[in-house]
């Protein structure tokens, strides 16, 4: 004896009368008569797939941005390092250039030996101050 | 119904491929399940256009949640729960449909013109008298053949409550339509 025989399926004694069930089924029948039903379901399928394609694209779009986001973080760090290095190099170059200009100016304007004119040293006291004045004015 | 051994091979293959990102496989699942999903939505929202919206919303939600679907389980019941939730959300947004609107929805557009117009009209009025959940339960059980447990899972209520709702809905329909033939 099987369980099915011991416990037979309980009949649905509460069920509605068959004509009423038929009426209900008709009221809730899916769209389309047999001829047009396939076209209807195909159309609904296409609408569903169009919406899931949009969702798929939006999802893929999100993934593309998230990948870019990941790369962007690394890129930003690299760019900051390059910028800092370039700044340091630039500063160093400017400093050495300034030093070079400064030194070359010094070389151009400073006479190697400062010498007093010999005639000035040999001149008597009175005429020596005149000679100094003349020398300063002439330079 | 959710016994892994009883899930058709085709459905399982489609579900696994869809989970792996194959959109064509998902199209196959749509083809297999859209009719049943439409009936679930229609039992809840009643109006054809709303049922279509709920089915589309449900499939989009299922598509987005595929990574949480266990392909060892049957796809249909999982999808139907999602579609039912989409339909319940839509029904909440629409608030209460007027009796007139419900009446029109059950009169058209897919009815057999040979059927007794008065009978259909009386049935529509009687259904409009039922509470929303009781109407959904009676349609899901008597029209679509879902079990109490399946109905409970879809509507988020215990199976016993679905059984009790069905009993009261039938009783009320009988009282409202007692003067009709049959």
Structural class of the helices, strands and pairings of chain B?
Answer: mainly alpha
What's the main sheet of chain B like?
A: none
Order of helices and strands of chain B: HHHHHHHHH
Measured by DSSP, the beta-strand proportion of chain B falls in: under 5%
Radius of gyration of chain A: 52 Å
CATH superfamily of the largest domain in chain B: RNA polymerase sigma factor, region 2, helix turn helix motif
Number of helices of chain B: 9
Stretches of chain A where pLDDT falls below 50 for ≥5 residues?
1-9
> What is the mean predicted local confidence, pLDDT of chain A?
72
Number of helices of chain A: 5
Quaternary arrangement of the chains shown? heterodimer
Give the tally of structural domains of chain A.
1
Strand element count of chain B: 0
The low-pLDDT segments of chain B are: none
Helix/sheet category of chain A:
mainly alpha
| Sheet having the most strands of chain A | none
Instruction: Specify the overall morphology of chain A.
Output: rod-shaped
Largest interface, counted by CB within 8 Å of the partner chain's CB: A-B, 31 and 44 residues
Distance between the termini of chain B: 34 Å
Structural summary, described in words:
The complex is a heterodimer of chains A (139) and B (182). By secondary structure, chain A is mainly alpha-helical. Chain A has one domain. Helix content of chain A is 78%, strand content 0%. Chain A has five helices and no strands. Chain A has helices at 3-6, 18-27, 34-109, 118-122, 125-138. The termini of chain A are far apart. With 182 residues, chain B is mainly alpha-helical. Chain B has two domains: 1-95, Rna Polymerase Sigma Factor, Chain: A (Orthogonal Bundle); 96-182, Arc Repressor Mutant, subunit A (Orthogonal Bundle). Chain B is 72% helix and 0% strand. Chain B has helices spanning 9-19, 23-45, 48-64, 75-94, 99-107, 117-129, 132-143, 148-155, 159-176. The radius of gyration of chain B is 18 Å and the shape is elongated. The two termini of chain B are 34 Å apart. The mean pLDDT of chain B is 86. Chains A and B meet through helix 2 and helix 3 of A and helix 2, helix 3, helix 6, helix 7 and helix 9 of B.
């Amino acid at each position: 004896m099987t369980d099915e025989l011991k416990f037979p399926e309980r009949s649905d004694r509460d069920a509605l009368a068959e004509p009423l069930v038929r009426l209900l089924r008709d009221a809730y029948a899916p769209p389309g008569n047999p001829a047009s039903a396939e076209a209807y379901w195909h159309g609904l399928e296409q609408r569903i797939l169009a919406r899931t394609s949009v969702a798929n694209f939006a999802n893929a779009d999100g993934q593309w941005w998230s990948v870019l986001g990941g790369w962007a973080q690394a890129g930003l760090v690299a760019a900051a390092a390059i910028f800092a290095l370039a700044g340091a190099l630039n500063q160093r170059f400017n400093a050495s250039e300034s030093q070079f200009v400064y030194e070359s100016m010094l070389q151009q304007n400073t006479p190697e030996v400062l010498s007093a004119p010999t005639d000035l040293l040999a001149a008597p006291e009175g005429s020596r101050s005149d000679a100094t004045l003349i020398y300063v004015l002439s330079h | 119904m959710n016994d892994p051994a009883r899930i058709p091979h085709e459905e399982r293959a489609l579900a696994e491929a869809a989970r792996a990102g194959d959109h064509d496989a998902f199209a196959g699942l749509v083809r297999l399940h859209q009719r049943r999903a439409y009936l679930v939505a229609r039992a809840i929202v009643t109006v054809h256009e709303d049922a279509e919206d709920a089915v589309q919303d449900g499939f989009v939600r299922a598509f987005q949640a595929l990574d949480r679907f266990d392909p060892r389980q049957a796809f249909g019941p999982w999808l139907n729960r999602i579609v039912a939730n989409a339909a319940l959300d839509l029904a909440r947004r629409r608030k209460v449909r007027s009796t007139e609107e419900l009446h029109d929805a059950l009169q058209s557009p897919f009815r057999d013109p040979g059927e007794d117009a008065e009978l259909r009209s009386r049935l529509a009025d009687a259904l409009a008298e039922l509470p929303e959940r009781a109407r959904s339960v009676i349609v899901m059980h008597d029209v679509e053949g879902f079990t109490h447990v399946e109905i409970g899972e879809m509507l988020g209520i215990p199976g016993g409550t679905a059984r009790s709702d069905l009993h009261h809905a039938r009783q009320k329909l009988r009282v409202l339509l007692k003067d009709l033939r049959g």
